[in-house]
């Protein structure tokens, strides 16, 4: 895999990192006082034919841990500094085409949340009053309907994919929780349609809609308040939400890690209690969620939260075993080599600038090899350089020997340095390359995963999930290990 120059620069010299800065949270304006709706929630009108899973939300619209109705907010996007240039051309093209056909269109979900926080969204999702067939017809030849439980339309625009969902789509297999049966006298038909869709969302901070033409943000769940409080809160009660879709556990951790948010007590309790349920997910889905955690600039925080809530052993058993063997504490800074490696990687990545999945997979195998057999710092640096230089060992040796920075002596994976003859250094690097390849192979083998799990004190004894990282073996480290 071709790597841009910065991406492996930090592998050559592992130094103690500086103090990590806290995740910035954009200052949010205080909400205007609004009269609370006398009857908290609407009921569907006879013309509404579909009712998605919903549940009561708390006072002020702050989620599922209370039982009063929401304080609906329609906020001007100008309060948060929204600008037209913040939305990419591909999303604008889809919005304009659908609107020109008479359909209502909104940006929805995480992109609205990120724009409020002045962060760069990973993608821009759209929801429309058109049904998915009408969306597909609007973009004839460049759109395809995907998904089984909750179908959406992928619209291909300028080598990008814009996801478009429909207000008319209901999640298949939802729990069918009842919605309120009293209609607020302040509820318009459009309000009801928007509100009903938001009730099917996972977290309140993802239940925001933005009309870029009227420049209004619609907040039916108290998402803006939860952004201000830095909380990841489920829309319906957390236990129900995670049992309905256990992938929400991984999304909750991913969002909290990326934004530096925390969980309310109820949410935190069920993330930990139901952590083992993620093993039931399709392995492809797990890999997708792992990639979102590790390839988009928040890998270190994700690994910390996965360990804290007992999820790591179900996703990466070898790394969980390493944490257990080192008696890692979640607040430790700079002493865990695996976290330092991913922290260095995070510095070069962002939600709109991720790395290829083969890089973080290689990094896991790289560290696992070091954890098994600590190496001289010069061997590690020379291997990293040879990997980066496409296998040019002679140049890697020359550059490696010119490094005069002191390695971090707190890492047990690094031995005391010594003087190496070129031939012996090459032999050691090639041995380490073989060890790294073996580590990757064993990380995907059920027998060796079971052995790793035995090192974790509270590891589950059955229904173990072992990663299918092996499907990426041919795209991860072989070229880097063919060192000559």
UniProtKB/TrEMBL annotation:
Ranges for region Disordered: 1-70
A GO term for molecular function: RNA binding
Pfam family, one: PolyA_pol
Statement: the UniProt record of this protein carries the keyword Magnesium: no
GO biological process: one example: tRNA 3'-terminal CCA addition
Annotated transmembrane regions: none
Record-annotated Poly A polymerase head domain positions: 105-233
InterPro entries: NT_sf, PolA_pol_head_dom, PolyA_RNA-bd, tRNA_ntf/polyA_polymerase_I
CDD domains referenced in this protein's UniProt entry, alphabetically: NT_ClassII-CCAase
Listed Low complexity bias regions: 16-30, 46-59
Residues in tRNA nucleotidyltransferase/poly(A) polymerase RNA and SrmB- binding domain copies: 260-321
Keyword annotations of the record: Nucleotide-binding, RNA-binding, Transferase
Protein family according to the UniProt entry: Belongs to the tRNA nucleotidyltransferase/poly(A) polymerase family.
Protein name: Poly A polymerase head domain-containing protein
